[in-house]
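Severity: low
Component: inverse-folding endpoint
Summary: output formatting inconsistent between runs
Steps to reproduce: submit the following structure tokens with default settings.
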């Protein structure tokens, strides 16, 4: 009789542990995205990674307002958007809405390519600028 109780308790514990790990696996993306936003994306503070600078006027959860992404020759500006952290790639994927993309030709400084967009997706790998 005692052995049956021990087996039943062991099986119950394994089921609970399996369910808990499954929940952690399923919801890890949302939790990590929330943590990444609190740690990385601050309104009015430039975020610099791998030659890019990201500046956001306002952050509400994963919603962004007044977004500017720039590098030496490229600039993206958008009125709004959102982001998601991709832990497998150590990257943030931005979906930018209602904006302008500018590309400067380094060989011909007077040449400027300008494109307006309703929506674009921009992925930024989170590798430090100086390794």
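Observed output (run 2 of 3):
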């Amino acid at each position: 009789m005692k052995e049956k109780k021990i087996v039943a308790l062991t099986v119950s514990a394994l089921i609970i542990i399996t369910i808990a790990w499954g929940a952690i696996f399923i919801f890890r993306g949302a939790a990590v995205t929330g943590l990444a936003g609190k740690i990385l994306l601050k309104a009015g503070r430039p975020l610099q990674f791998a030659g890019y600078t990201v500046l956001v006027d306002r952050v509400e959860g994963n919603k962004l307002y007044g977004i500017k992404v720039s590098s030496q020759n490229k600039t993206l500006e958008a009125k709004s958007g959102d982001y998601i952290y991709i832990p497998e790639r150590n990257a943030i994927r931005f979906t930018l809405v209602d904006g302008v993309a500018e590309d400067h030709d380094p060989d011909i400084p007077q040449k400027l390519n300008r494109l307006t967009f309703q929506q674009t997706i921009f992925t930024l790998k989170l590798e430090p600028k100086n390794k």
